[in-house]
Design goal:
Blueprint lengths: L3 E6 L2 H10 L3 E4 L12 H10 L3 E5 L11 H16 L4 E4 L10 H11 L4 E3 L9 H11 L3 E4 L10 H11 L4 E4 L8 H8 L3 E4 L2 E5 L22 E5 L1 H13 L1
Parallel strand pairs: 1-2, 1-8, 2-3, 3-4, 4-5, 5-6, 6-7
Antiparallel strand pairs: 9-10
Helix pairs in contact: 1-8, 3-4, 4-5
Length: 249
């Protein structure tokens, strides 16, 4: 297969479904409504014990912006160390300076610290001030891959910029479109951008098995726009459809 598919998951159930559907690797996160934060140790170990495909773990100590304090940066180093000990296949991170440029120095240090695990620079890139200079900075920092929506909310809207970035990169780094990609648009995105790797969740909503359902109280899911008694998990059939579409291109 000339294309690779990475499934973003925030639970072990979805990770296993992604593998069964034929995904090449997962990006393992916690709290996808926040855009993904670092998963717990137990989740990382469970994923490693249950999966044969690649596991890339996001290193993001909190939601919000990508300007990190010294304490948060130290947490990132400690989480990378845990990933190394758990024998995951790669890590995913992104750090910006206050002026919106890529923090080359800090990123490069984490790339070196993570070695030999490859590093994907995530969609912090989509918040940088200059995408073309940002690409050069990410390459200089030593990242192996760049995840981007083309500085738009969703990758289909940013496809033209993604194409330009891929042309600029000239095989110096893998550029992987992500955000808003599904079976309805992946063929067009692949053709427009020329990308060879893609990042998506491929999820569906499933209903809770709870019979008793306490009303009038929220545990946080409602705040994030997700009802208390349903959740999002990877959809095996949807992921298989996407892989079949890519195989036909």
């Amino acid at each position: 297969m000339k294309f690779k598919l990475e499934i973003c998951t925030d639970n072990i159930e979805s990770a296993i479904v992604a593998q069964l559907a034929g995904a090449h690797r997962i990006e393992l996160c916690n709290d996808l409504p926040e855009g993904g934060t670092t998963p717990g140790y137990g989740t990382i170990v469970s994923a490693r014990n249950n999966l044969d495909i690649g596991i890339h773990v996001i290193i993001r100590p909190r939601g919000g912006d990508f300007l990190y304090s010294d304490s948060e940066y130290d947490i990132m180093k400690k989480d990378i160390d845990i990933c190394s000990k758990c024998k995951v296949d790669g890590i995913v991170l992104g750090i910006l300076r206050s002026d919106g440029s890529i923090d080359i120095e800090r990123t490069a240090k984490l790339v070196e610290f993570a070695h030999p695990m490859p590093v994907t620079f995530h969609r912090a890139f989509d918040m940088c001030s200059d995408p073309f200079q940002g690409l050069e900075d990410v390459i200089e920092a030593g990242a192996s891959r760049l995840l981007t929506s083309g500085q738009k909310d969703k990758a289909p809207e940013g496809a033209d910029l993604i194409r330009q970035l891929i042309q600029q990169a000239k095989d110096r780094i893998i550029i992987m479109p992500g955000s808003g990609i599904d079976d309805s648009n992946i063929e067009k995105i692949a053709r427009v951008t020329g990308a060879k790797e893609f990042h998506l969740t491929g999820r569906k909503i499933i209903d809770s098995k709870m019979i008793f359902r306490k009303q009038g109280i929220s545990m946080g899911g409602g705040v994030a726009g997700v009802p208390e008694f349903s959740r999002m998990v990877a959809d095996r059939e949807k992921i298989k459809r996407i892989i079949n579409i890519l195989n036909l291109i």
